[in-house]
Write a structure and sequence with these properties.
By secondary structure, this protein is of the alpha/beta class. The protein has 13 helices and 17 strands. α1 runs parallel beside α12 and α5 crosses α12.
């Protein structure tokens, strides 16, 4: 027998970790189900082979890979796309920690641009002004560094809790000079990386080791939820994190309300039923709709909370473009995102697309990944790597993926995971505007690298599909809206069909914007926690 709890949260990452903290602080009992374990921050923190190449924090492609194709019936090999990072703290343990606020016009896409053929644009049912105080709270509680007012597109702030930005490295400094010569306004990227010690949150000043994006932080400087908000939640005595808990079904009671989450215990191999008055899903943009689709019943034969038929639809990524250049001189190894350029964030009507686009530095590959992607072998291979790796730098584009109903997550009719449950299958095809926006942004990155003195060595060709290793920025599969026929959850992220079921990861995003989604997930989780706390009696918690 498992003791009932007020709220059961599936997933401990950006949404789940913050929600647990806010609810426990409000006096609400919480159980967090996490499929993974606590990350070990030891000498393997900078091990590129383990963390980036072999991806030891994810299941194998052979056992748990996701098929991604442009049509529902196309054959394709399994990939890592959509595989969550199974760790306490989820993707926040390994991400580059970019912590952006979405711009007001990111939340009113339909109003700004009108209808677009082939895309399903909508406005968010919440405004930036409604989210703003929760952004401020998230920046303070998580710990974000940056420079307020430096970004020319930055929206209004009610308070400035930002720590000082990370110092410029030599490449960022050179890039900033080149950008200004082009008439651009570069600025420090806001990141959830500490630039001063904060024992209250368990985080410490960045040591600038270079091993950041894709790695656990050996120095506890990356402000992931497992070292910031989750410990504070557990210290209240009201929150408990259960590791090795693979959620496989949400059960309903006779009234049609969520009553429990069933999970497969990794230690025993047995199913455990966790009763709860409220259930909140924070497993990510692929695993959350998958769990709803697995939770079929006589009341919901097409999947839980899916009377609209929209669970899993409007799958969005960010379209990631990269440009690589070789310079005359070497630069110190650096992976942290440092410099942003947003002068091109909002496209002009004459450009032929409406995708919002961010350009970011600090996307350099590690030495092993760099070596594996270089052509040629033989006696000159080693010397060439030693010469070229320190002189090679990258820029990254984060381009908005326009929502389309046909882009979706479904249960794979042919493939099961090792536990016997259907794996997810993704159908995704980029809109023509997506491709045009990416290609134009890649051209702009090339001009910026050349202005900094680099020789661009790749081609600016837009992707034709999602890359095989894409496991992050998974959005939109449980769309938020006011009309139950056109959305899965309401403006408070509560399922239209199930009054005590919430979605607090990026599944709720109606549109993706052109910025990394983590801070928006966290801000919204604080907002949803406030709603749950205020309506606790009504929800049964």
């Amino acid at each position: 027998m498992v003791e009932p709890t007020d709220v059961c949260i599936v997933g401990s990452g950006a949404g789940g970790g913050v929600l647990a903290h806010a609810l426990a602080r409000a006096g609400i009992r919480v159980v967090v189900l996490e499929r993974g374990k606590q990350a070990k921050r030891d000498e393997t923190a900078s091990d590129e082979l383990l963390q980036v190449v072999r991806r030891t924090h994810q299941p194998s492609v052979e056992r748990d890979g996701t098929v991604v194709a442009e049509t529902p019936d196309a054959k394709a090999p399994p990939t890592r796309v959509g595989q969550a990072f199974y760790l306490v703290g989820g993707g926040t343990v390994l991400y580059a920690a970019a912590s952006w606020r979405l711009r007001p016009d990111d939340l009113r896409k339909k109003t700004r641009y009108g209808a677009v053929a082939g895309a399903d644009l909508v406005d968010w049912p919440v405004t930036y002004e409604e989210l703003e105080p929760w952004y401020t709270l998230a920046e303070r509680e998580i710990g974000v560094s940056g420079k307020s007012g430096a970004d020319p597109t930055e929206p209004r702030r009610s308070a400035d809790h930002l720590m000082p930005p990370l110092p410029e490295d030599p490449f960022s400094a050179r890039l900033a000079v080149a950008a200004r010569k082009l008439g651009l306004r570069p600025f420090p990227i806001p990141t959830a990386i500490s630039t001063r010690n904060n024992p209250e949150t368990g985080t410490y000043e960045c040591q600038y080791c270079g091993w950041c994006s894709g790695y656990t932080c050996l120095f506890y400087a990356k402000n992931s939820t497992d070292i910031t908000v989750l410990p504070k939640a557990e210290k209240t005595g009201l929150a408990r994190v259960v590791t090795g808990a693979y959620a496989t079904r949400v059960e309903l009671d006779s009234r049609g309300r969520a009553a429990a989450v069933v999970y497969r215990d990794a230690a025993t191999g047995k199913d455990v039923r966790q009763p709860a008055s409220v259930v909140c899903l924070a497993a990510g943009g692929v695993q959350t709709p998958r769990l709803l689709l697995l939770s079929k019943s006589s009341a919901f034969p097409e999947g839980l909370a899916n009377r609209s038929g929209l669970v899993g639809r409007y799958m969005m990524f960010h379209i990631e473009g990269r440009r690589t250049a070789v310079f005359e001189e070497a630069f110190a190894f650096e992976l942290t995102k440092k410099l942003g350029v947003h002068d091109w964030y909002f496209p002009g009507k004459e450009e032929g697309w409406i995708n919002h686009c961010s350009i970011q530095s600090g996307s350099r590959r590690g030495p092993l990944t760099f070596a594996l992607r270089q052509p040629g072998w033989g006696e000159q291979y080693g010397p060439a790597l030693a010469r070229d790796f320190p002189r090679t730098q990258q820029l990254q584009a984060m381009v908005e993926d326009l929502p389309q109903s046909a882009n979706r997550v479904e249960l794979d009719p042919e493939r099961l995971d090792p536990e016997g449950f259907p794996l997810p299958r993704i159908t995704h095809k980029y809109h023509e505007m997506d491709r045009r926006a990416l290609e134009a942004t890649q051209q702009k990155m090339g001009r910026l690298l050349e202005a900094a003195g680099g020789r661009v060595v790749d081609e600016a060709v837009a992707h034709t599909n999602v890359t095989g290793a894409y496991t992050y920025h998974l959005m939109g599969t449980c769309r938020m809206g006011t009309d139950p026929r056109k959305s899965v959850v309401d403006r408070d992220c509560r399922a239209h069909d199930v009054p005590n079921l919430f979605v607090v990861d990026s599944s709720f995003f109606p549109t993706s914007g052109g910025l990394n989604p983590t801070l928006t997930i966290q801000a919204n989780a604080y907002r949803v926690a406030d709603f749950i706390a205020r309506h606790r009696k009504e929800l049964g918690g």
